[in-house]
Amino acid sequence: METLAQGAKVATWLELAVAPEWRRNGFKVRVHAVGVENGGCYTISLDDRWLCVSNGGITVFHGLSAALHFLKLHGIENFEPGEALDQRFASKAVRYCLCTDKGNALLRCSCAQRCRLTH
Fold this sequence. Notes:
8 strands; globular
């Protein structure tokens, strides 16, 4: 697998976390479904850059509620729906997958088991 950073513009969690409030409010945030047949997975873009972990792996959320919870934790309340991310592209990229538990806490999940992006 390759990192998304090799072929696309990226934004990192660190950039989002340390951005001042005025900068976060200025981000154009979009939430994207990952593949049509995998309706339960989502990713996020900031100013047309994919949200990635520091190693360039794309952040994938199992469920819209997980993606929205992540945004809320970073103080981002304004976002819009984005175009779906092509399944073939997503399956070739290194992923860092997150889901929410019953207490609505974010935790890492196994993409192969939860998001089913490997078929």
